[in-house]
Structure formats: structure tokens, C-alpha cells
Amino acid sequence: MENWRELLKDKPVKYWIRTEIEEIIKDKSVDRERFYEYSAKRTIMNPVVTDYTLKRRLVQHCVNNDEFSACSLRQRRVVVSQRCHRIASLLRLALTQISGADIHRYLRNAVLVKVKKLCLLVFMTTILCLTACGTDKKDEALESSSSILQTETTTDTKKNPEETSGEMETTSSAENEQESLPKTETTFELTEQGKNFLTQMCKKLNDFNSQTAKDETFWRDFLFYSYTGASEGAETETVPRDDFDETVVKISLQEAEAYAKLVFGVDLPDIKPSFEDMEQGQTSFYYQNGYYYIGVSDYPDYQYTFADYEESGDSITVRYTIDFEGESNVGTVCFGIVPKDNENGFIITSKSTEF
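Above: the chain's sequence. Below: its structure in C-alpha cell form.
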């Protein structure tokens, strides 16, 4: 008991609590009856109240007057709780000044913000998942296709190694043969038949070029000047006119079409003038029953001599000189021709005459 008193005096804190006292009683094996008897003898007077005396046990007051007992601690706790109650009342009063609509608006906005954030998070997660799935599927497809190709290549190589090597040798040998062959350039050669044909075209064909419109007048003149000279072997007839009988050359439609194809490389258009369409005094040119009838006339007395020709890209220029009444080289005729697979070896693309 004396040791307990000394421990009570030397307590460094300002007050004791019941839990600590119970621990001391259990630890020191203090007799509870003697302890409470001893504490009953120790009393203090309340300096504020004079009519009655508040008797407190030992747990209320310690030996040191500057220290507080458990009872004083409880009084302080009551004061603190009262102050907390006042603060809570003030908070309650402040909250009552806020309208219910403001509170609901605040809660609704808070909920909406949270819902929006949650929806955005779910959306982004879904997009990421789909992107990852698509990438994985593409990678799997690429891997599977590459593995299949590798397997097929390996199988073919294993099955036919000799055939593969043979094909490579054949390809290389063919390339070497092609390289060893001399490169020949296709050159145009104007034959005597071609020269004679162009000589006839010097007097039978009107001048023209790529800008000339191949209309009905162009084709009528072409057919008339091509056959009006009545070459040897041509079929002729006599046609009665108003005041005279005219000799005409009879040309079949098939012959005229083949001739146009030979000269220009194009089909003859459908030109079939009638006998009634001719003017009085005009040299005959009409179509009847599958034949052209063209009046016979003479060509001007010009002589044409082949001069030379030269190639320029895909086109070829052929020149002829003109002689007239004993004078030589009074002019030139130039043809533009291009190679063509026909009996002449070319077609005519232009003609120009200069004196």
C-alpha cells in the first residue's frame, strides 16, 4: 500500500482515469476494500460552494493540488460536450437557411458529373478493348497467312528442287540468248512499186494535210481525179447528155472502196450522187446500180521525177521534182507517208505542191 501511495504521488500526468487505477490495483494486488476505505477518508471542500461539502474519493483528487482527478476530467468533458452541442446547433441553424432546392440542385449536378465521368470511362475502355481485339485479329491473320506461305514454299522446294533449279537455268539461258542476239532496227524501204504509185498520185491527188476536212467534196474530188484519166484497161461507156454524148469510165463500188483504203488507210464514206444532181455542162460524176460513172478528161502536161526520201520518227517524207514543157525542176511535190501493211507498204498522210 505504501508503494502504491508513492506511485500515486509521483504520477507525471495531471489526472488519473479509472482504467489506469484498475490496472494499478491488478498489477500491485491492492486490496479493494482497504483501497476504498482509504479513499473515503480523503475528502476535499469545494471552494466555491459553502453550504455543502462535496466529498470525493481518492480517484477525484491527487496529493498534488496542481493535478486533476478523474471527476474533474469528467467535468471538463461535460463542458467540451456542451460546446460541441452549441457548435452543432449553429451548423444546424446555418443549414436550415439553405433552401431545399439549392441542396437538390447541388446533389443533382454532383450526380450528373459523376455519371458523365463514369460513361466517358466506360466508352474509352470499350474503344481500347475493340482496338486491341482488332489489332490482335489482324496480327493473327497475317501470321497465319505468312505461315501458310512459308509452308507451301518449303513444301514446293522439298518436292521439286530439281525442277526449280531447271527453271532458273532455263530462264537465265533465255535471257543470255536474248542479250546475245543483235538488235535490228526496222528500216523503211520505198520500193519501185511505191515510187510509181506516188508518181501517179502527184497528178491525181489534191494537196491536203492533217488539218484538211475529209468531207463529201474532198472524196468527190479524190474519186474524180483518180479515174478521169482513163488508164489503160479501164472499162468505158458512152452516156448521152443534153447536146452531146460523153465518154465515161465505169468503176465498181468495191474497186473504189479498195482504192481509198490503199491510199488513205480508211473506209470510203457513203457518197452516191445521182445523174439528176449534175449541173448542165459538168463533167459526168454520178453513181448508179453499184457503179461510179466518171467523165474522161486529160491531166495537165507535167512530168514528175522521184528525188529522194527521208525518215523522221514515225513519218517519212518523199520528194518529187516537176518538169514542164522542157524546163526541169520547176517545182516540187512532197508526200508525207507512214509505213502500212499493204501492197505499197505505206499510206499517204499529206501532200503539198510548190512551184
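The first helix runs from residue 2 to 9.
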